[in-house]
Specification:
Blueprint: E1 3-5, E2 15-17, H1 20-29, E3 37-41, E4 47-55, E5 60-68, E6 79-83, H2 88-99, E7 104-109, H3 119-140, E8 147-153, H4 154-159
Parallel strand pairs: 1-3, 6-7, 7-8
Antiparallel strand pairs: 2-5, 3-4, 4-5
Helix pairs in contact: 2-3
């Protein structure tokens, strides 16, 4: 059954309109038909089974049938400090970190960092990586999307008061 992340409040026995991203992927790309079912999650824990009730050329609606409270996030809370790299390598690192159960990702810069974000592009890149994290959750079954924090220097991050149990590699 297809699985999608949606930024919306979800309640059983309600009808909601799909976001443009979910609509495009499920209805346009996967060619879902009225009556087909999927799983939606909103990053707050648990997941919802939905049924496609209406589909037009530009939008679609689903009825939320049931809620499954399963929480697939690990019992531990892992914070990853990731020095930014260029291109697909950073996307891949975020994807694999999410699949391994990281709860938060702190973007870092260092002396030999290949990438430096520039003002307007900062938020676009962070939003892109947040989308990578959401897509990884869709694929691996996690119900809570890790938060990706704006970049800081490695030195500043190491100086922070991190949780008591910490491993810095």
């Amino acid at each position: 059954m297809p699985r999608f992340f949606i930024e919306a409040d979800l309640t059983v026995d309600t009808v909601i309109e799909l976001t443009e991203t979910v609509f495009h992927h499920w209805v346009k790309v996967l060619r879902a038909q009225v009556g087909e079912k999927a799983t939606l999650f909103n990053g707050q824990g648990g997941e919802f089974e939905v049924e496609l009730t209406e589909a037009s050329k530009k939008s679609a609606s689903v009825k939320i049938i049931s809620f499954n409270p399963d929480n697939r996030t690990p019992a531990f809370k892992a914070l990853l400090g990731q020095v930014m790299s260029k291109g697909d390598r950073m996307d891949y690192a975020i994807q694999k970190a999410v699949e391994l159960g990281v709860a938060e990702i702190q973007l870092l810069t260092s002396e030999r960092c290949e990438m430096r974000l520039k003002y307007d592009r900062d938020q676009k890149k962070i939003d892109h990586w947040q989308g990578i994290a959401s897509a990884a959750c869709e694929q691996c079954g996690m119900n809570v999307v890790p938060k990706i924090h704006a970049p800081i220097s490695l030195e500043a991050w190491l100086a922070y008061d991190l949780p008591e149990t910490k491993l810095v590699l």
